[in-house]
Amino acid sequence: MERNLKIIFTSDMHGYFFPTDYFDSKLKATGLLHNSKRFNKDENTLVIDGGDTLQGSPFTYYCKMKNSPEKISEIMNECGYDIITMGNHDFNYGFSYFKNYLDNLNAFCVCENCVDENENKLFPHKIVTMKNGLKIGVVGCVTEFVRLWEKKQNLEGVRIKNVFESVKEAYLDLKDKVDITLCIYHGGFECDVNTGEIFETSGENVGGKICRELGFDILLTGHQHIKIEGKYFYGTYIVQNLFNALSFHEINVKNFGDKNEITSKIVLTEEVEFTNERFINSDYDDLVQEWLNSHVGTLEKEILVKDYLDMALNGSELADFINKIQIEFTGAQISCTSFANRISGFNKEVKIRDVLLTYPFPNTLVVFEFNGKQLKEILERAAEYFAIEDGKIIISQKFLKPKLEHYNHDYFLGIDYKISYDKPIGERISEMKVEGKPVLDDGVYTLCTNSFRANGSGGYLTYKQCKIIKTYTEEIFEIIIRYISNNGLNMF
Q1: DSSP annotation of 181
Q2: pTM of the model
């Protein structure tokens, strides 16, 4: 007997629900509410999200500012979600904020490796029985690197365990009880899904290991923001969506009792017919747009964005601007900052929109004490951003594939140094000076950075060896706004 299951899968939406990219107020053919017109849910359909929902857009920042995660729940309910898992960014505003979101959500959450302090699973695997009788064993999990990236206070009462071991235990419990085994993993692949070649061993992504060593019928992945159209990988059917609601997957399963036939299609945003219709919560989004257009201050000149390679090679006035603010705020000798993969820069008349789209990260500031040797180590890590190809300096592929990671290249202010691009990694930095004096291996220096980097994220593991002098609770976005508002024309 043939029984069918349809899965609608989204992931890594980062709060892009409405038909806008927030770089202006114009409606565009984008966002979850635009895409959801193609979901076509019936009684044998599961609508599933793979996490990173609560943070990333001006809308989600406004919801956080107003402590209104239920506004996001309303949108997810309107779109008919049945099951979600957690993404690493869903912890950014604290676990209690996520729970408030979940309390107002019609969907249930599965996240096998999220436990309380007594090792009790908070969101265990479940068996879902469809109208046609199909039994689906559903397991969720989030990259265990949450432990590295997230501030401790945001994980209060929560522990994130090893992904593979957690998922394995759930799979073994389910496999003989259901018709279809399904894993929703907020993580990606440590290997090439075409060749199987391993390119990452950190443990951040273990999708390949799950496919190789377990027997799930379907693995829904995220986190890497890579478009993976449906295919079999070591016998498991895999997919992955683009970020910011730029795509979704429709997966169709034909079950014949002892076997499944699985096909899928990825639907890109621009493939969905666009209308100017009003959406749920549109009045709330109007408030967001009004807030984004609020005037912050006036600058003497605009500070615009250049090509990423140009900024990294020749310096960035925008990075210097942010670093100057961070130094004045903290009193540190040195500051570093990084850029998101897409940023706006500042016009002379600065709006909240400009600041939030230039610094979208929910980070705070941390001041460290470094010695000279440690300073060199973090500069060397930043210098890995560059590579030589045919005699030309380019951005290293490690920062471009499998996931775009411009945000893992840091810009520094308060330290001068020479970089030799043609030298081996780890040997590129020389002639370091702070306050005009050569940096000494045993010298003592202060450096401020953001809370994400402070945990060693992005390969900057030296931070984990250094002494923390001071931490701040205000978000960098807010510090920038206040600084521009107070100083404006006097900033240059």
Answers
A1: E
A2: 0.91
